[in-house]
Amino acid sequence: MIAQILALFMGSLLSIPAPQNLDGPGKLLTSVIPEGRVLSAQTELREGSPVRNSEVSEISVTADSYVIVDVGSGSVIGARNPSAVHPVASLTKLLTALTVMQKGTLEEEVLVGLNATKAGNSGSDMKLKVGEKIKLQDLLAGLLINSANDAAVALAEHVSGTEIKFSEEMNKVAENYALSRTHVVNSTGFDNREQFSSAYDMGILLLQAWRDPVLGVYLRSSALTVSSVDGIIKHKLKTTNRLLGERTDILAGKTGFTDGAGQSLAIVAENETGHPVIVVLLGSQDRFGEADKLLDWTFRTFSWPDTK
Prior knowledge:
single chain, Beta-lactamase, two-stranded antiparallel ribbon, 11 helices, 11 strands, 37% helix, globular
């Protein structure tokens, strides 16, 4: 008990705000100085927390940072640099989707503009056409299944007029979720020195999106076909999350990749008794292989109390 109180006290003293960008010394400090909220999640004895098998050795991965969170208790049961700020690429689209859900309605018709189709020329897209009208919910599907950059910009401009104004709304939503290590300037996740988050913050966003009755469906969908409002233009969506087809325990997931961020992945999976965990990797050299490895290690290392 004394150790836990001391950890909470030290966490409140050591926590620092997010840096203004990824270039200054603040980025390094987030790697070495813990946040009180994360330290608490790592050290508190919370009701329902899983119990670790001390005979299982620690695990090693290449990711710059990662976190494993037990959904039921909120406990952090595995981590390296969980509070360190890092570019997160298309994991940003989790925040994009949650912001859209707060500002728009699913049946709204969105007019696709030139900026959206230009964004689709870089990275993943859903082949939107300038002047196409498509429902907001179908753009959300493309955003989360295909990780479509054109969908992200189309949604941003529809909701706020410009992507810059929409990113301001995204930051307000992040603040409401108490994401103290997250800041964005675009809806796509494109590399920018002022755009970053942390593994722990991304875990919170994934949990919120997974629990949403609409977004959660898209995060676990392998494929879907949507169309323009007039039904003329078809968009075949295919997931970028390879693990959805390889593991039956995956409940949701979102991928991300840019040159600056490297490989990123956020997933929800459950063990054989139905206890879900969240795994987030940032800056991995093999996101799918390492997520697979972390999940196997987690379910081998921890056991959950019987809550019946």
